[in-house]
Amino acid sequence: xxxxxxxxxxxxxxxxxxxxxxxxxxxxxxxxxxxxxxxxxxxxxxxxxxxxxxxxxxxxxxxxxxxxxxxxxxxxxxxxxxxxxxxxxxxxxxxxxxxxxxxxxxxxxxxxxxxxxxxxxxxxxxxxxxxxxxxxxxxxxxxxxxxxxxxxxxxxxxxxxxxxxxxxxxxxxxxxxxxxxxxxxxxxxxxxxxxxxxxxxxxxxxxxxxxxxxxxxxxxxxxxxxxxxxxxxxxxxxxxxxxxxxxxxxxxxxxxxxxxxxxxxxxxxxxxxxxxxxxxxxxxxxxxxxxxxxxxxxxxxxxxxxxxxxxxxxxxxxxxxxxxxxxxxxxxxxxxxxxxxxxxxxxxx
Length: 349
Hints:
Glucose Oxidase, domain 1, 8-stranded mixed sheet, alpha/beta, 14 strands, 10 helices, globular, 2 domains
């Protein structure tokens, strides 16, 4: 799962002062939470805590994240030294990154938590998280890519609705801003999400949506980055897809690699009782003309076309500039005819 880099913006912010170590709860003592917990909505002036739970970031990425989130009207709190920490391909030691998440949830002055980037590393620390603290202090947690593992673990262990949306260092286009504001700050429902006109107009066909299986389906949203959800199959953080609307995206993976991950999930029975599958934009995943390969579209048709459920490709989420925000655990309706996804309930209270 290759990651994109981001350009530079400069901003200044006061670092967050550290808290005492919060500790963690082993996964063996935790069971699936059947209760759905919605966090409080975020309002202008609320304080967002910044974290780097996976790969390291540059100062340019940090500055860009600061600018993006301040432009949404939020205040920021963070520990700059921890955010810029490096341990090879990780943003610091596992226990330190896990501790930062635990402390952000435990801190009463923090209203929401935003991941600056994904990359790799979240799965290494899932059993270092204090799920009791997280459950007792529900807050919006926003990000995507490797953050999928964090979302899925927290949702399974606590029932907290998490948000598959732009990381702090993403391109915050007007389309991206519109939907992240709506989903994390508004309580009106139902709310219809429509595909990005800019994506549909792109000459690169990977951005263009198309229907694999037509239909209308309703269910709770679950999913995220395909590499991560497939890697969690069979672990304590695996989630049942029964009666769910499953959304998936990835970046930098050739069709045969996506085929392998989907085949693993099919073999594990993950799609046996799902209501529908929503595929995002699989950026930089098409095979070159010189390769002996199925096209991306042919591979998806081959692997998912036989499922007797609605399946659509190219909805506006993934490693792209114009992306909408998806709340895990919220009831939604997929309509492949008009290529819309409608949130049937608010994700926040």
